[in-house]
Amino acid sequence: MPLDLVTIPCLTDNYAFLIHDAASGDTAVIDVPEAAPILAALRQRGWALSQILLTHHHADHIQGVADLRAATGARVAGNAADAHRLPPLDLALHEGQTVQVGNETGTVIDVSGHTIGHVAFHFPASALVFTADSLMACGCGRLFEGTGPQMWTSLSKLARLPPETLVCSGHEYTASNARFALSLDPDNPALVARVAQIAQARQKGQPTVPSRLSDELATNPFLRAGLAQMKARLGLSDASDAAAFTEIRARKDRF
What we know:
The chain is α/β, with parallel strands linked by helices. The chain is built from nine helices and 14 strands. The termini are far apart.
């Protein structure tokens, strides 16, 4: 049985995610912007939290950890390389290591770029990847610490996952990301259709996260930086894929 997934809005525009193995009762949360909404979701379902998985050190992803840990006794796991600026870790992880949620194994992927030491968690049997501020719905995170080539390498890892994978990213930035995408790729019918779907969802107060990787590959300009037509639109036909990505990221920063 695949893991149950619950998307939890937090703060102004953050998301946390619960994953639950029904057979064992094991439950994990990915990132903790604040504790109260997560505790409410657990109580509503009668689930007991056993693990907290952290993607990166930014406060809006970890500031609720102390309260959630105190309330649940859950163990905290995160990147060993980032341990000096994460809450105290019970399990320090490295790329390629695994985490276990019930009967399902997840793999740690280094996706540095937004920060150095940012990780994603991929659960292949349930077709889930938790990307926080690396790959986002119709976008990607700002390069606060890493370089363009570094982020392109990270996004390329995620792009190689099975296309049916659900991308569970960390913020409700999709509408603004889509407006930028449309400025670069206005003749993309998949993107035009997605922009309309996003607008409809937001009008109803519905989240646009998670998204399907196949949709990101079809519409997300940051994943499409290596395409000849995208490079031509940028005026960078002879540039490397990483250089084209870096230009797109710079344009988004100014958008």
